Inverse folding.
């Protein structure tokens, strides 16, 4: 049986180069076991570039599971190794709750808005 | 408490492919809403069941998409019971435990989500049943009242 398109969780990933070695990765939709590889495939190669910072904008994300959190945690670890800043922005309350259940809300640098996350980086 | 309150059951069998997790989440959302759970409780239930199904796909079936996962959701006045059955590798139940949260690393959070969200988490690996993960979420008195 072929799954119809509305059964497939969709995530949209866009990459914006803000200049000054700052990259914004905007995510929207649902991040789960099916879609998190798409996020990882975009995020991980960024840490091989000589960037100053990666900001992940989560304002369009309606769902995240442990695989999505694992992808962001991997990004955090890679940023530590490469000396880059790694910030999360625009986290909707329902996504924040998942980070709280995971007890990871204090591990990441989290900002209310993309603009706030960019402050001090340029 | 209403002992005469109706008990509703919903059964769903999906292929063991992650693209069906969205469908599972929609069903859980509908059932939790019908059962009177709050939006926040419903979101947590969705996460717990999603993680349980992801674990089946990854660990029981080694990501083989040709198998099936069967869910039975039974909603009553006191609780929502969820049975998740698979016929993959039998898990070593004694070794299933959430990881140490002080250790910051990718992965291993799914079991923590399930155990922290659900009130009861038990496994049945009796011969002939494959593996049945039995999850229970009890309802608050306010929710029970609405269910009458």
């Amino acid at each position: 049986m072929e799954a119809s398109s509305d059964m497939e969780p969709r995530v949209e990933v866009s990459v914006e180069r803000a200049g000054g070695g700052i990259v914004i990765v905007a995510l929207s939709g649902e991040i789960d076991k099916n879609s998190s590889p798409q996020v990882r495939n975009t995020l991980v190669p960024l840490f091989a570039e000589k960037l100053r910072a990666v900001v992940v904008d989560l304002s369009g994300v309606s769902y995240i599971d442990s695989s999505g959190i694992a992808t962001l945690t991997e990004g955090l670890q890679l940023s530590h190794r490469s000396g880059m800043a790694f910030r999360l922005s625009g986290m909707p309350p329902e996504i924040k709750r998942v980070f709280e259940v995971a007890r990871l809300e204090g591990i990441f640098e989290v900002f209310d808005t993309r603009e706030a996350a960019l402050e001090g980086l340029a | 408490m209403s002992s005469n309150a109706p008990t509703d059951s919903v059964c769903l069998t999906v292929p063991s492919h992650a693209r069906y997790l969205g469908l599972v989440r929609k069903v859980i959302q509908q059932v939790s809403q019908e059962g009177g759970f709050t939006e926040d409780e419903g979101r947590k239930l969705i996460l717990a069941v999603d993680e349980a199904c992801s674990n089946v796909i990854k660990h029981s079936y080694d990501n083989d998409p040709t198998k099936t996962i069967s869910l039975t959701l039974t909603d009553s006045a006191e609780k929502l019971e969820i049975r998740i059955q698979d016929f993959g590798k039998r898990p070593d139940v004694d070794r299933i435990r959430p990881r140490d949260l002080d250790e910051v690393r990718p992965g291993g959070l799914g079991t923590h989500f399930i155990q922290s969200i659900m009130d009861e988490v038990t496994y049945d690996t009796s011969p002939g049943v494959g593996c049945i993960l039995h999850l229970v979420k009890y309802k608050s008195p306010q929710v029970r009242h609405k269910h009458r």
About this structure: The helical segments of chain B are 21-34, 39-60, 110-117, 141-147. The domain at 8-147 of chain B is CATH 3.30.565.10 (Heat Shock Protein 90). The CA atoms of residues 29 and 43 of chain B lie 7 Å apart. Strands of chain B lie at 8-15, 68-75, 79-86, 120-124, 131-138.
